[in-house]
Amino acid sequence: SNGTATVGTTGVGFDITSSTSYTRDSIAEYGPITASFSANGAIDTELENGSATFTMDSLSGSRFSLSRFSLVTSYRNGVVQVNSVQDLQPVQIALNWNIPEDTLSVLLECDRLFPLRWITLDDSLGIPESLKNTTVSGTAGLSIAGDDVPSYTVDLIADVPESFHGGGRATILVDGDDTTVYSHTLGFSGPRY
């Protein structure tokens, strides 16, 4: 690890680069899990406003690897916002935590995301090569407000390539909370189904 921190009259600035490795007996077949990341940003002297960029340059284990991704974070007037930076994949992740109002929302949006290219899995897991061109589009969200039960929505379409059993489209449209799932659409259609 290496980095710098600069203390000035308006606040603290930082720039950190680090690598880490984690292993334990319970995950030995997947590990060690290694990561390389960087973070840089600033926070004011009153600890009321700040921003940072976090970049995961690599995250991998013996059976997986995740493509590089970045998050931009800001803190203003008691509200934490985290947003992904669209580098190579068409996916947007947004988190909003309003501390004074005690609300949290997380939204994932994607448009023709290739999940099995973004997350690479080891061949020993038996994922057919033809599934690597599957694309996913849609949204998924989670909301929590005070003492209310968490609620979620999922509206996703996965287009499976023809090279995998003739291809087709999987659709899921559900919502609910921690006790109930409301299924509006759940299915698969294709030339063989």
Topology:
Blueprint: E1 2-7, E2 11-22, E3 33-44, E4 49-60, E5 64-66, E6 69-76, E7 79-85, E8 91-98, E9 103-113, H1 115-118, E10 119-121, E11 135-145, E12 151-160, E13 168-177, E14 181-189
Antiparallel strand pairs: 1-2, 2-3, 3-4, 4-5, 4-6, 5-10, 6-7, 7-8, 8-9, 9-11, 11-12, 12-13, 13-14
Description:
The structure is a single chain. This protein has 193 residues and is mainly β. The protein has 1 helix and 14 strands; from the N terminus they run E-E-E-E-E-E-E-E-E-H-E-E-E-E-E. Strands 1, 2, 3, 4, 5, 6, 7, 8, 9, 10, 11, 12, 13 and 14 form a 14-stranded antiparallel beta sheet that branches. The chain starts with a strand and ends with a strand. The mean pLDDT is 91.
Rg over alpha carbons: 20 Å
Largest sheet: 14 strands, antiparallel
Order of helices and strands: EEEEEEEEEHEEEEE
Q: Flag low-confidence runs.
A: none
Report the portion of residues in β strands.
Answer: over 45%
Structural class: mainly beta
Shape: globular
Number of alpha- plus pi-helical segments: 1
Proportion in helices: under 10%
The span between the termini is 53 Å
Number of strands: 14
What's the gist of this structure?
The protein has 193 residues and is an all-beta fold. The chain is built from 1 helix and 14 strands, in the order βββββββββαβββββ.
Structural features:
193 residues, mainly beta, 1 helix
